[in-house]
Design brief:
By secondary structure, the protein is of the alpha/beta class. The chain contains five helices and five strands, in the order βααβαβαββα. Helices cover about 35% and strands about 20% of the residues. Helix 2 packs parallel to helix 5 and helix 3 runs parallel beside helix 4. The radius of gyration is 14 Å and the shape is globular. Bound molecules: 1,3,4-trihydroxy-5-OXO-cyclohexanecarboxylic acid.
Length: about 150
């Protein structure tokens, strides 16, 4: 049975390099810092956040499959695989939970090959261009979508 309070934050190729990778595009925040903030923010929302990153498409597909039936929501930044991976699209399309696609950069203000996402058609929503804050906004959205956000907020 899906634990609606469990949220998987999934990051794809090269996002382990955040902090040193093109900081003028992606900012100075490291992935470890983003993940720690997600866990902390999740606690304030009553969500248990698990974070994973891989440079390998198949590993990401495996984790999406595992999340199916065990997690309440999924936040995914598939990195460059956003623009190429039918395998990730297929895995997400049967995940059966709210999915928020996140990109640190505004992919529509960049090279044209970044304008198309294979993932967006199966995402509940998409956040891009807001840097690390995008993950926090995605968690807020998941909390509302799963009904976990504490009353009155
Ligand atoms: C990215 C945008 C992608 O085009 C790029 O390949 C990434 C990061 C982003 O977070 O802005 O690796 O997903």
């Amino acid at each position: 049975m899906a634990d609606k309070t469990g949220v998987l934050v999934l990051n794809g190729p090269n996002l382990n390099m955040l902090g040193t990778r093109d900081p003028e595009i992606y900012g100075h925040t490291t992935l470890a810092e983003i993940e720690a903030t997600c866990v902390e923010h999740g606690q304030t929302l009553g969500l248990t956040v698990s974070c994973r990153q891989s440079n390998h498409e198949g590993e990401l597909v495996g984790w999406i499959q595992e999340a199916r039936g065990s997690m309440g929501g999924l936040i995914v930044n598939a990195g460059a695989l956003t623009h190429s991976s039918v395998a990730i699209l297929d895995a997400l399309s049967i995940a059966d939970m709210p999915i928020v696609e996140v990109h640190l950069s505004n992919i529509f203000a960049r090279e044209s090959f970044r304008h198309h996402s294979y993932i967006s058609p199966v995402a509940t929503g998409v956040i891009c261009g807001l840097g690390a804050q995008g993950y926090i906004l995605a968690l807020d959205a998941i909390a509302r979508l799963t009904g976990q956000k504490s009353k009155g907020k």
